[in-house]
Amino acid sequence: MERLIKFSKTIRNNWKKSAVGVFALYYGAATIKEKYEINLLMRAACREAVKYGDSLIPMERNPTLVTVILNPVANKRKAKRDFEKYCEPLLHLAGLQVDVIQTTSEGNAKEIVETLRGTEAIIVAGGDGTFSETVTGLLRRNDGANQFPLGILPLGRTNNFGNSLFEGGKGVERVKQLIEASMAIIKGDTVWKDAMKIEPMVHEEESSSRPIYAMTSLEWGAFRDTMAKRDKYWFYGSLRDYASYIFNGYKESLNWNCSGVIKYTPPCAGCNNCIQKKPEVKRKWSFFMPSAPETATTTVVNPECAILQELCFKTSNLRIRPQKFGQSEIPSLSVVIGKNKYSYSEFVSEGWQRINGIDDNNKSIAARTVELIPNESGPDVIIDIDREEFEVKPVKITLLPHIVKVFCNNNKMVM
């Protein structure tokens, strides 16, 4: 009893040191628990991957070759470490022949994929930026290369597309996401996804630029600008996204007045004006060899497909992304035009909701093609395409339905 009383007095007289000690003890225990749970997850995943590696293949068949496009500086240079720790061992245990190519600069992934030969699948180890570059390089080819599966290992800081396929999180949940993405590649289940073809609209005397392809969104306005400034508030840790809205909600430097003209055509299920047929790939794994793409012929006539509608807009937020419209199952672009004016509290409130994945902008325009003609352009006016920054200029956005084949978990698809 005397020892207990003495211990209590010591704690009371040194309460600051005691509080630090309790916090350190709690942090240490939580870290040990997290590592133990991750170890259990990896052990179970390795046992499952080995089953695929032990399966027999024909003698004349070489092990499946996959090429990994790794961005080593993604997620503050943590991407390479996480890939080697959680993803690469599973791919090797499954009997895959893994060829890792590290990007060396911005845009390097496009160059790699445009000239890639002799592989059976491409795996993107990085974030939205690396994935967007890979898709652009893949779809710029004219040899039907998009018929071959594309895997995503969400190792970047922003993984919107990866999170749509595999539920993400932090700590143990993040490792679980990487394991699930790796196992999807090993199992070979795939799904076709829509993409956006974004072409600059140039005058006759100007030289045309090559198109950019995007999978998630095109965004312009104050919300985009605010998230672009979040790194300035790194000292707030996990709260920096919230702090970014608090400290920028009143600034005039944001793009509060995004205005221009939108010309769009309505969604179409497929007619002789817009449909394209993908060539058949009979085998589950096929060598990544050039082949001439096939074009489709159809007798379906849709006179409304080419009708161009025009809309003038002025808003603080514009977002265009691929989305299925309603319950009609017709692939379309979703054009969301936000409010024209926000009060400080409204802006911060909606920004925080976006951080938590809540989007109240249910009203949208469904379209197959969109011509975006801004009233102002220049190097100071920035637009986001799959979280990559570009100068605002007139562009034509075309929906390409079911154009990219990606690995997925068919049992747990998040649409």
Structure write-up:
The structure is a single chain. With 415 residues, the chain is an alpha+beta fold. The protein has eleven helices and 16 strands. The chain folds into two domains: 26-53 and 62-193, Rossmann fold; 217-277 and 298-385, no CATH class. The strands form three sheets. The protein has a six-stranded antiparallel sheet. Strands 12-11-10-7-14-15 form a six-stranded antiparallel sheet. A four-stranded parallel sheet has the order 2-1-3-4, sandwiched between helices. Strand 10 (317-325) and strand 11 (330-337) form a beta hairpin. The longest helix is centred in the first third of the chain and has 39 residues, at 15-53. It is found in: Mitochondrion inner membrane; Mitochondrion intermembrane space. GO terms for molecular function: acylglycerol kinase activity; ATP binding; ATP-dependent diacylglycerol kinase activity; ceramide kinase activity.
Could you give a quick summary of the protein structure above?
This protein has 415 residues and is α+β, with helices and mostly antiparallel strands. It is built from eleven helices and 16 strands.
Kindly list the characteristics that best describe this protein:
single chain; 415 residues; alpha+beta; Rossmann fold; 2 domains; six-stranded antiparallel sheet
